[in-house]
Structures are given as structure tokens and as C-alpha cells.
Amino acid sequence: MSETANPTGGPVEGGGAHNEQVRVQHVSARVPERVDSIMRGTPMKRFGEADELVGALLLLVSPIGGQFITGTHINVDGGFTAAWF
What we know:
The protein is an alpha+beta fold. It has one domain. It is about 30% helix and about 10% strand. It contains 4 helices and 2 strands. The chain has a two-stranded parallel sheet with strand order 1-2. The longest helix is centred in the middle third of the chain and has 9 residues.
């Protein structure tokens, strides 16, 4: 698989996008206290939508933008992670 996925024939390196802050119907509907807690810690004050992950994923798989990105993790969370720093 790595030879077809990587045009150089080398190994395919890992990368990922974390989407904890993307809207999930069952959480929003059943645990309002948890939703309130998440929103208090999220600078953008909203859940993301699934299509907002696309940019990060395209970067990781792009032969131009992501060709030297390996073993990293991109948080797509409306600033939730950055708010802790």
C-alpha cells in the first residue's frame, strides 16, 4: 500500500486531525451540562461542523502542503486546546 499511496515509494507517515469540538447530535441532545462546560472553554463559542475538518485533512494529504508533515496531530477545535496555554 505504501508504494501506491506515496509517489516516492517510501513509507506513508502518520498524521491526524482531532475533532472533539465537532457537533455530535447525541452529546448535544443528552448532556447539556457537558455542552455548557465545553462552550465555556472554547474561544469560538460554538461546535464546529464536520465539513470544517476538511481543510486540515486536505493539508495532511496534499502532495504540496503536507509533503513534509509527519507524525503530527492537528486540533480542529475552535481554540479549545490553545485556551489551556
